């Protein structure tokens, strides 16, 4: 019997024959104890499992010396990884370990055949299930979990608020509790941190007005058009207009807030991704991530939130919940409407928010052959006061013709306050000779650089008044993958300058463009959501502080010990006595509570095996 093994995305059985897989029943166990003078023996205090070792006995069979060396080189290439990678073995379907090669790989060669034992070390000795589970609580807020793994695991919990609330709490039967905020005191009045004055999901261009080009930065040509994307959610450039060389050309729209805000917090969700191929030393390689969520087409989509995604009776958050789909679930979308998709799940037909789903391409990779390195594009979201003065600009763009290099930036007035400090290296130089042997050179596409490419991201910019009357600003940009923050840049909290504008925030301008006609535009450029909050001054008396509002989404990762509200870190609001707990193997329960009695909560986890 031979085995099939997949490591770091490569099928090892395509390179060699896997004869045997050796594992211990359990990793090596170390017990701890201490001596007590008044008792015999010692007092047992605990134990620790060491790393797990998995050994593959393999054979390399070839037909010639050259074929032998080619197979050895190919196998070496797939085994050489920088970090622990997923290791799948066919005798444990849909389970994987995180492993790296360990020790020597001396070959026992006879002619054109060789045998060797390959040792993988799993510094994390646990196996993980490919399949996630998702749960919803009963009417009393009680979750009943079924953990089929052989050891404990950690939940992901998401709460979607329908009304203002002061707290959210999760408690297990032992009394371990995670508390965000504080329960209400019935003797005190309520107050809120902020008030949402605009929650624009960018699904209806009728909410927007034409934007004057005079309100944009110099070098912008704006005679194109913006509109809602074909998936019904997010503003995209539907027509870039006349193309002028060496100018950013595109379309723009304006959105009024309906108020003048002195103190505010603004969240802007964007998607920016080139979906072509990039140059590498070995030729061109496809992008490392699939196209961002949305996609605009019917087809297969997967759930990207680890707490699970609700299936509703209709395409609104007020409709009833029929089921909860686990993370990674793939469904066939049969209708798209206003940022919602209709699909079948098990024996149900219902609707789910596309904000938490990602399109799965048919071949699991980009099908484009364009060079993503040379695609250029820009998204800018301006904040204006009532006189049209620019207060801030949130910008994400790729302006490098040789590299795929996405740069998020934030300007206050005309001063850049946030951005990457490292620029691109020199582009790849190509030297050619003509028929007479005369050399000439040119620069050509050079690959991928930077950490914000293929980006689903969020800008947050905040201004509040200090006690002395000056304005304090802060700004951040976060990149997300599968709903988790993977990269973040931010300013220090509360900086100021006499050069910064002081007008009240009144409206937004949105510009999406490409660079002239010489270069293709970035494939995916979307402004997906804009939320504006008025920051309320602190109360002079003790009150019940409402830290959540209708529409807020709270995410709690019990394994990482992180708390996010609307994808913004929110750990400062957690009670000091909170303790992140695990879910034991077997059947167990936890209870969730909030003063928003209509809050919708989902939970998900991944089973683990020792």
Automatic annotation (TrEMBL):
Ranges for domain Siphovirus-type tail component RIFT-related: 20-122
NCBIfam families to which the protein is assigned, alphabetical: phi3626_gp14_N
Q: Where is the SH3b domain?
A: 308-357
Q: This chain belongs to which protein, by name? A: SH3 domain-containing protein
Signal peptide positions (record): none
- Report the residue ranges that make up the Siphovirus-type tail component C-terminal domain in this protein: 547-609
Q: Which InterPro entries match?
A: Dit_BPSPP_N, SH3-like_bac-type, Siphovirus-type_tail_C, Siphovirus-type_tail_N
